[in-house]
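Hey, weird one. I pasted the Gliding motility protein GldN sequence into the form twice and got a warning about non-standard characters only the second time. First submission, copied straight from the form history:
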Amino acid sequence: MRKIKSLAILTGLVISHMAVGQETSDNGMNPLSLRPIHESNVAYKVGLWRRVDLREKQNQPLFANNNEITKYLVEGVKSGILDAYSDDNLEERLTLDEFNERMFKRFEGGGLSQDELDAGFGTEETTSDDGWGETTSGGTDDGWGEETTTEDNSQNGTVTTTSTQAPADGYEMFANEFYLLELKEDWIFDRQRSRQYFDIQTISIKIPAEASNDGLEKNLATFKYKDLEHFFRNNPNAVWYNEANTAKHINLADAFELRLFHGRIVKKSNSLNRYLDEQYKSPKEALNKSQELEYELIEFEHNLWEF
């Protein structure tokens, strides 16, 4: 009876899937899939977004000291090997200047803009008599990023000193400051092989709220997983750090293939495109729902073949 019920649910899902459609190319394949499944064989599909906190113990092998996955992604963009996109819609590709601007962390307070410096803000003038009736002029660096200029006023016997703050107001963030990833993947049931697949579509680097210039969590860049898989395979140094046996580190591409990470579900595809914490009243309730979704996906596959 349970099997019949599960098959009835699956039939309804197939009809719904055929009506809505999915992102495919002209040949019926998803162009973002590493191992695409033809749309005629997709019996069930749901989009999942997972939050991967690289500080968690299970995820630390992806974030080993000086071997962070974010380090390789940033280097790939700066070297021109990887294409970075604004978000997981993949509609806007970032230029190198735009990517660097997103990585730039401004000091608290933001400093002064170039227009403000040109207008004279941040410039302090002091006037003093040197006591000798002599005049000097010139500029020196005081060692703190400020330039001090002494101006001679021979007619009134005074010396004017001008101090201008250097325009630098921040720094480019380090790769180990980006400890949040967001995976977008499809949970697919393949009717031909009679099994489920997790099909990763994109991986995004998030700027944590405490590191963001405005105190909000933002997207640094999004990458096609197909590009990353090829990039990792061709980079032997990009490894999942094996603490148990340092002679057997694993390439990052294999680590994702083997699901050697923990990513909490933060969004399931829905008509309003809302995250779980936007749908529920409290973070605790959203966390409980995330765990429920994990169990539901496991139970769904199990019940299809239960007699």
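That's the output from the first submission. The warning seems to come from a hidden character in my clipboard, not from the data itself. The helical segments are 2-20, 69-78, 96-103, 114-118, 225-233, 252-257, 276-279, 283-304.
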